[in-house]
Fold these 3 entries.
Entry 1:
Amino acid sequence: MQSASDRHEYPAHWEADVVLRDGGTARIRPITVDDAERLVSFYEQVSDESKYYRFFAPYPRLSAKDVHRFTHHDFVDRVGLAATVGGEFIATVRYDRIGADGMPASAPADEAEVAFLVQDAHQGRGVASALLEHIGAVARERGIRRFAAEVLPANTKMIKVFTDAGYTQKRSFEDGVVRLEFDLEPTERSLAVQYAREHRAEARSVQRLLTPGSVAVVGVGRAPGGVGRSVLGNIRDAGFTGRLHAVNKAFPEELKELDGVPAHRSVRDIEGPVDLAVVAVPADHVPEVVAECGEHGVQGLVVVSAGYAESGPEGRERQRQLVRHARAYGMRIIGPNAFGIINTSQDVRLNASLAPEMPRPGRIGLFAQSGAIGIALLSRLHRRGGGVTGVTGVSTFVSSGNRADVSGNDVLQYWYDDADTDVVLMYLESIGNPRKFTRLARRTAAAKPLVVVQGSGSAPQGHTVRATRLPHATVSALLRQAGVIRVDTITELVDTGLLLARQPLPTGPRVAILGNSESLGQLTYDACLSEGLRPLPPLDLTTGASAEDFRVALARALADEACDAVIVTAIPAIGEASPGDAELAEALRTAASSAPAKPVLVVHVELGGLAEALSAAASTAPQAGSNASGVVGGAHPFRALDRWATPAPEPSATPADSRLIPAYPAAERAVRALAEGVKYAQWRRDAAQPGKVPEYEDVDEKGAAELIGGLLARGQGLTLGTEATCELLRMYGVHVHRAVAAPTAEDAVAAARTLGYPVALKATAPHLRHRADLGGVRLDLADEEQLRRAYSELTGLFGKPEELRPVVQGMAPRGVDTVVRAVIDPAAGAVVSFGLAGAASQLLGDMAHRLVPVTDRDATSLVRSIRTAPLLFGWRGSTPVDTPALEELLLRVSRLVDDHPEVVAVTLEPVVVAPRGLSVLGASVRLAPPPARDDLGPRTLPVY
């Protein structure tokens, strides 16, 4: 137990699992009095040199007094954290609060001394960096704003830990010791360092799973069939380049080999390291297998066993125990209830999945959560008919099952760096951390296309996700803002992925259409219009067109500067002069090679042979130095996909710089894929020149913080009154049109005299607020007589004044009524929304959204993103309104919620935007204690 002087209970919320630099995991937790033996054992395994660096003198063992000091903490002024693997300490960190004289102190002293000790065997794994992030977060929580550390000059590793952290720091040298002092407030650089470390660690953890040197399949049945035996056969048949082992505790002792694979009764019996274990035993036996794997040093698990969260509350708890157990040994998990993983690299050739055949190698990374979706994706890419005709290949495939540990975020970290992956396709039935996914997606999309099908918003059974108050459509809009190519179906996912993998990005929306069918050309033209593209008049080559006619027409279209992409339509033709499939495909490839910077798509009708010919590659590997893919506007250089399991033609069979041309069985599918490519290319160009978050000199951030702190001191959460709302907004340059309460007709008349006629009379009761259509708002009241009549009518229609809460407000200049909102969502983060007030936003949902902080470019696009935006820009001869003033208002609201996370909701309604200026006629603000910000806190693995 803690001593009487230990004033706080054990802070369980400080416990966290983290991914280290090498991809392994460790658990960070507070040190308690129960850790005395662990601490002594840990210290005995530290080298004399490391002990000397820690204590500045030879210190072979800890005294009883030392052990007491290092295990008794009050969790306020004295805090110790340990990083553990397998329940044993591998590193420790502690801080002691000090005063200005350097002696132990209590609050309000805001400085502390910090010191680390890392076992030599675990140095270089990034343990100290992770501990610094966590002890820094703990210190900030306890009111400590600055750390001081004294380090010997020879201890360069620890000095580097501090200097590389990115905090604002001072450095001095005195009496042979380096003294470092640094503020703990996160800086732009410290966050960048944290994100970079997170990226390297999580990418490495997935790489260890996908590129193992040895694999053990645990749960291989002695008889053919069964999950374990199937996975073993799939790994063996794929030609896995590493060592493979079959494990089953029921194997007879004399059994040494099964299906040509070494057989063992336990993972412990395997000589040499095991990098990956595929677990295919009943759920009740999985804990025993995890323990065996952890003790043997296995790096990661793929758990295909079912019976976890998808089976109900008992299974959910079993799943939590599985994750805790595996992470305690430093292992990461794909699954449980996973379909498996695939890596087609010739250096690996791993098919640790239930897929009976290894996909052909290619440049597309695939992620799915459920096995059924994974099967559908793999089969759709494999088929020539039914889906997109032609063939393509996969670099890596991950099916995460219940996604208890490794998620789409982790795999995205890996694919960002993976040189074998050019396009990422993801089917996300749920998003566990939308805030982080959006951040990672924005970075990934700037380098390579990311195409996503997002589930309907309700997580499947077995998937634990954070609750979000945002509508599904809003989350989709935020994903698009981050550069995600958001599609609705698997068919669209593959259609778009094939185009982006095979063709360069279009530089604009202008589309040339040519082919041998006038009606198919017109259908394609109409589809382009409906998708927002700008098609040129279709060129009809007639049904008698030869392959040479197609080549000449395509080459001419590609050479036209008024064309950004070409869609070729082709139908079967009858006659001796009609081109064969191979001849036509060769003609199209030859013409396309003359303009490698423009995409070409083919819409075919019942031309299986043409689709196959168009997909024929010059070789089974991307051509070195080929410029066929082109780099447009800084786009990622896409390489042609390899053809699955097809022998390479002779080099002379196809030009070396030829590229694969995707063929689609329907015009709408080809056009939709092209439209997504056009929007993505535009996003890439915009992202290359990001906007800025402007500074406003009239913003009183400090005064607002003091006001918010004072208001929150009254309670945990509250909706501000009118005066407090206006005062807070005024500190950020947002001025609310004054409204005066009018509980009686006489009060209304007095208010109007103060404000000056004409005035408006409004009922502010919740059921009548902003409802002019119900008669709750009376405008342009020019004198006292009109005001008294309106007051009498309101009370006569809707009830007593105390029920209506009427107010009097001076009339604002006429304009367009809009609404501006900001909300901090627990899953997605802070979001600013904009739309027109009334039916447009309430009934039709015509709202646009941007993540905070909003940049000047974001604000400009936000105003123009709603469908009713023409009303702001002079629709049908009306006077355009002051959109720059509207954009400034959006930026100021964004700045408010970004500076003060305690502001969890802001609503400005209506905001009347006039030809010159705007008027905020109504406002509400809600405060609450700041929600947890995982993106600003220390790195930690989620617990689902």
Entry 2:
Amino acid sequence: MSFPITTAVDYVEDVSPGSGALAPRAWYASSDADSLSLNGSWRFRLSPTADAQDDSFAAEGYDAGDWAEVTVPGHWVLQGHGSPIYTNHLYPFPVDPPRVPTENPTGDHLRVFDLPEDWPALSEGGTVLRFDGVESCARVWLNGTEIGEFKGSRLPHEFAVGPLLKTSGNVLAVRVHQWSAGSYLEDQDQWWLPGIFRDVTLLHRPAGSAGDFFVHASYDHRTGEGTLRVDSEVEGRVIVPALDIDVATGEPATARVEPWTAETPRLYDGELVTAGERVPLRVGFRTVVLEDGLIKVNGRPVLFKGVNRHEWHPEKGRSLDLETMREDVLLMKRHNINAVRTSHYPPHPAFLDLCDEYGLWVIDECDLETHGFVEQDWRDNPVDDDRWTPALLDRAARMVERDKNHPSVVIWSLGNEAGTGRGLTAMAEWIHGRDASRLVHYEGDINCRDTDVYSRMYASHEEVERIGRDLDGGTHRRRELPFILCEYGHAMGNGPGGIADYQRLFEAHERLQGGFIWEWIDHGVKDERYGYAYGGDFGEELHDGNFVCDGLLFPDRQPSPGLVEFAKVVEPVAITGDGADGTVRVTNKQDFADLSALAFEWALQADGETVESGSLPVPALAAGESAEVKLPHPAHGVPGGAETRWTVRAVLAGDTAWAPRGHVVAWGQVLLAERSLPSVAATRGPEAGDGVITLGPGVFDARTGALKTIGGVSVEGLRLDVWRATTDNDDGASWQTDVRHAEVWRKLGLHRMRHRLDAVETGENALTVRTRVAPAAWEVGLATVYRWTSDGDRLRLTVSVTPEGDWTVPLPRLGVRFGLAEADRVTWFGGGPGEAYPDTRAAAMVGRWESTVDALQTPYVRPQENGARADVRWARLGGLRIEGDPEFYLTARRWTTEQLDAARHRTDLTPGDTVWVNLDHGQHGIGSQSCGPGPLPQYFLNAAPAEFSFVFSASD
């Protein structure tokens, strides 16, 4: 005999989107109608299961005095109640849709509030209670009366509550469940963070107040006219003073306008006026079409230079305030980003207001991902199960209706990594029917049956080029559509590499309309144990480690080298030349704006130092135009004997909303005269002493030939080094079938190389040390010869490396490593100011730079190889001056490579007394194999005969 289970929480596992909520409508930040924020401190009780507590807490007069308190908006697991969970795509519970575990953390929230004294009389109009975001399922009561329940975590839900309100002592009770049927639709690559994490607001709705409305603002690029029509659920008038528009809702009005684009985000202030409410409007006129196989805005193709943006704050999770959102937008604009994909859910609506204001193209993505079903070959996938279709359509409608009045939104996205199925087709059909003014995107629709854009993620350079050349095949419909990389350049740890190579393809083939770097910010959780925590740091039984830290920003919103590199790669002005004819070629790479907002500056530099500078007249080139611009004649001529180059910068000519006057938008360098390579005449020979050999300023161990000092500066352990602390991109992703270099490097033993001394030879003018560097267990090795010569003041080291055996893998690095007892300040002439590697060096400007050793480190959340400065001609540190022949990569750090390799968090690294210096002839490329292709072949550091030299001397 069996007994029925209580039905009190059946709604948790119901596939429907909920009950009691009002129909979705357009969002706006404010109006002249009253509103009351219910954000702040709420009483909170956490239970281990959905049915552990009855509903009595929702009743008026309930005593919650012994409950804890949490901040709303917020996540209770980030406020000391439970722990966050990180998975990339695996569901952290058994997959049995729509069922969820009995262990279902449930947070009861209570807020008692009074209405303000000036709140309208309760008999006047109505009142709506709005939740902008709750994860993952909520049931709501007001003053003891249940008003509804809902799912759809990153979507708004409103409830009519007017008849239930009192002037004082209102009790709002919300029960939030971590797991629900909706969780199966929200398997995005991010932390699972339950709670009321967006705003809760009480909205007065006066009689005759605005309902839903749709702002249609198109632009005709042939006539320069914009047409405005506002369809409104409630009749009223539309007023735009700057355009002398005053028309009834539903009626079109045409005027000459300045169009809205991401480059020129012109907004016209207006109002929707109904009998009971005045709603501010910000109208941007623009037209989006699919034409000639291209995405066109206002008649022109656009090139997306975009990022994927999850919402993240290291202490507040997905609860972002307006200033944090603004900081994101300003950082994007200042780093030449022009587009954002709201991965993988609609953002806080205020973020889209900022995109309208400052100018960003937006792909607005629905709150939908069912990626975990891939583990069972997509069996029982909700998007192909008709029972779930109403929930899918509800999510699509809540996104579109909320965000439809934003000019920045040019494409709707059905969601991410949800397989294929009838439910997605239904969503696409509904969106196309509701809003024909935008395109529809979904990467999983490989044949583009339901979508308007061919989209892929992490396609290789080779495949992207084939697509650009229309050689990719596919259905006839797909071949006629534009292509974007909705995700590429996986920015996990050091990297991404190869984005400049992608950009060259985008610019070479019209069909390729750009892409979106994955992703904007590392999702590190601030943690006193580790600095920033990632998957597994909270004891999760299933997790995906630091795969959640894959952004262009560190968790504290400091730009990573990857963001600086991306800004250079996608800069809107190209400045090129060969220096021979005294001109530079300036190309406006924007899609719409001319160059009138920019000023140009030149500097003439000798050995990295500016000797002359000035302004450079450049015409206000239209988008796509180029001009040859004559450089000035230096007043004092070109310095003789020095490496000289022009550096030309494009800067903002005046203050803008997103950056001040003088902000550097783009730059280029043109070489005039190459450097003279260092030369050391071998005029001094080695001299034997008491257990040592002296050669010029160098002192060596007589038995081993090991360098001990240079000019009195102690040098420890100088020898060949081929190992680097593997990067996330070296490690690659476990599911990838191609070669993951860190794996083969470790198998071969490149992290534990043995150094065999074969000979120490003293000649008339040289000290030669012969060695073999090889891993245990294998026959391959590197025959390495160190040849030292001196002119008395300087010491030259020439390293010759000859591979022995069958080397089938590239090397991580090739150079020498040594330790210095004291080193703090570092000065160098070469690429800077930040780190650079073979396929991440576009942003390395050649100049003279200075830093501390500590500031040379890049603070990746998971420690790994970092901090190399490229193309270094010479460097000074620790009492030494080091010149390279040829140029070299420089790194210096207060821990060994082995210690760096073993560290899992920043706090694992403890500075030592020795500064370890690497002078590298070569580094292997970075790539983006943490979730994409590895380095291109031209960036491989293949094992091959090599010779390189360094000249050491005591510095002043």
Entry 3:
Amino acid sequence: MSPTYTAGSLVNARGREWVVLPESASGMLVLRPLGGGEDDVAAVFPSFEEVRPAQFAAPSPSDLGDQRAAGLLRTALRIGFRSGAGPFRALASIAVEPRAYQLVPLLMALRQRTVRLLISDDVGIGKTVEAGLIVKELLAQGEASRLAVLCSPSLAEQWQGELREKFGIDAELVLASTVSRLERGLELGQSLFDRHPFTIISTDFIKSTRHREDFVRHCPDLVVVDEAHTCVAADDAQGPATSSTSQLRFELMKRVAADEDRHLLLLTATPHSGKESAFRNLLGLVRPDLATVDLESPAGRARLAEHFVARKRADVRQYLTKEDGLADDSLVERTAFPSDRWTKDEPYKLTPAYRALLDDAIAYAADRVETAGLQGKREARIAWWSVIALLRSMVSSPAAAASTLKTRSESAAARTAVEADALGAPLTRDSSDSDRLEGMDVAPGAAESEQGDPRLRELAARAAELHGPTSDAKLKDLTKHLKSLIADDYSPIVFCRYIPTAEYLATHLEKKLGAKTRIAAVTGTLSPQQRLERIEKLAAEDADDPAVRRVLIATDCLSEGVNLQHAFDAVIHYDLAWNPTRHDQREGRVDRYGQKRDQVRVITMFGEDNGIDGKVLEVLFAKHRQIKKDLGISVSVPDETASGVTDAVVEWLLLHGRQGTQEGLFELGDGHQESFDRIEREWNSAAEREQTSRSKYAQRAIHPEEVAREVTAVRAALGGSEEVRDFVLEALRDLDAQVRTATPTGRDGSGDFAAQVGGTPAGVRDGLAAVLGGRIVEEDREIPFRTSPAIGRGEAALVRTDPAVGALASYVLDSALDANTPGPRPARRCGVVTTDAVTIRTTLLLVRYRFHLTLPSRTGERQIVAEDARLLAFEGLPSRARWLDDDAAAALLGARATTNTHEQLARNQITRTLDGLPELTDHIAEYGVTLAADLDASHRRVRKADTSDRAEIVRGLKVVPQEPSDVLGVYVYLPQQPAAVSASPSSSSTVTGAEA
């Protein structure tokens, strides 16, 4: 009969050691390799294959390491943990090291029975990582079993990549383009959302009634909504910009939120969108009572604070400081955001030929609007949108102008004036709604029929003749600006409004910017996946040549969703958007966390004599910039506000032509002046509400002291960034890699380095090739190791969760445990060091503990086996051990050999200590019990069930140590004796500090 194994016990099977997991049943063992992760779990049937109890072998006295052996082994062990015993189940198994401030939403979530959060941190702070932490934690704890992320189509692939690469969650893309394929694989009556537990769903997919109803019926228990402000509408919203699409989303979200047991995370950098009622509707999705709670009262704000977090960059640039209420700055975390944007408005003047073409186009537009106004409201609206399309494309580029002039207007097919607005507005306006970016970069049409107007055909022919820098001053000036940026070692993105303009620029800029400049264009003609592939190809081209610069030409299909800070560091707005929010979106692609430049450059090009750009810049952008300067935050411009201004600009232009005065814009009559006054009031009101939100409703549910306490605990269990950097540097050198150390001149004050691993053992090369790419290792390229967790392709981050660091730690640990491993072995399980750091014989133990955790959840108790590594130290012999505290034990890792140790003396000392290990068993076990109690308290503290309705969050929680623990390393430190100073370093009977 097979023996019975309890959860957490150690067994030997298939030639290796395993930990028995709680999921085991009679006749079947569910096992995880010692030090392995969830992906390595296997089922073993003792009736069919041999399973026997495993005893962790004691270290061998003949396999002595040097003075660094203990630290290297300890760090390698901790890096390998994928099931830590602390209250954050996810942190040990993700491939990103979160910033301390990113733990705040996670702490807020763990204190809620059903997680409902509105995360409104500023652009570039890391809302995706914050949401991913919560998602991973809820899945790891068993609080959720299925996930759906709702986002715009342009964000879907990025979400999929972030979840897979950073959090190990493989989510299926549910898009309009993939749904047919996915549905073909379903069984009869099976829902897409039952078949695929983790999905990323584009908002255009759920526009279909059938798909929408299926989603509601089978909605997962955890839903994340990105750009959540687009899923609600203000109570007084009107017009095509807030039509049925927004209302459909809002109705859907109300049905999703109606299930009180469903976890819901709403993400948006602009929770107000300029409307108080929209903000209230958003809060109502979090909790219905928040829609009406009195936010002017302390009680109301405290209620909101439990579910709402909104921080600016300034709030987190330096975090956990004395200014945050901590006793000192020992835990301060500095996040390397770019310090500021260098911005400049660059005017250009039309050439005579282009000016004449534009004047004729304006005259045609004025005639057409006047004529259509006499024909009826439908005809007037069709003409209006056609004219806007004509003028916008005309000032964009001759290529866009020619395309628009030869194409039939979308609105021409409308049967009513309302339908004309619905068709014409999306293609000619610059909505701040990112869901409307897809497909909006095509050049709009201006013709009323397929045959077109003879005047339009004549204008199109003239536009086609203006290609090139001779006739197109805008293109000529762009070339000058690009050369200036490239000369200053910048790699810019050029944003255009229309596809023909982007393609036109790519054609004419080729070979105009120097032999070391690479150019690529990305537009809506490519699928989202193809866009990413083209960007990655551009970023990787001649990546080894530091002199190579890159220029990306893009339409607004990239102004949201795709993060480009690793490859680009400047933005040129070639086409002035008609909503400043769109410029914020564009600039946010490079001005965000992970940008290596301290200063991002932004150039806004505008035509000072085209009659449009200058006025839009003066009226809309000047106000937007002033608000941002005054408040320190960017306030989203409501679409109706921006369109009201630009409509007035176009009307003014049609009446006065290009030569009218700026003041004339505000002399259109009392009606327009009243409209401008209303816009001014609404915008100021939106700015005031946003400022109030950021101050009055600032995150106060989690005090920085609480974050500091948990950060300290996490670092004690898993290690900090400095420990990881030292480990990687020392291990690579010991493994015969060629390491080139950089000087610590980076913005964050840390030191990056690079390594070539061609000379390392095959096991090291194979491990790194699997995570960094085979070519990098095979061709012995330099691998950059960055102190920042934000890295590019082919680089490694010096954090414990980076896959390359994990591969290196795995080799160091495995080679330490196997004395027969060929080649260099940086870590050993034993060591004897003579040092002046101690005055009495002192022994350091590296002990691995296992714990059986019982975690309560809404669906019942969850049984987990977790691991922890601790340092224990004592003075004297094992029989009369005087135990030191944790700090003193950790300090021994820094002890260095001050003289050589006689070889026989070293063997005698380590043998004596190993023989005495049984006498230490009781204390090691007692330490495990104390550690279990500390972990239990930590779990309860994080969940902080301070009210009766949340008591179940901690009811039944248990942490029990699993005996016996494993003594992985034993290191003896001998005090330096005066007689030892005369020992000959070259004597064969001594062991040097590098060998002891």
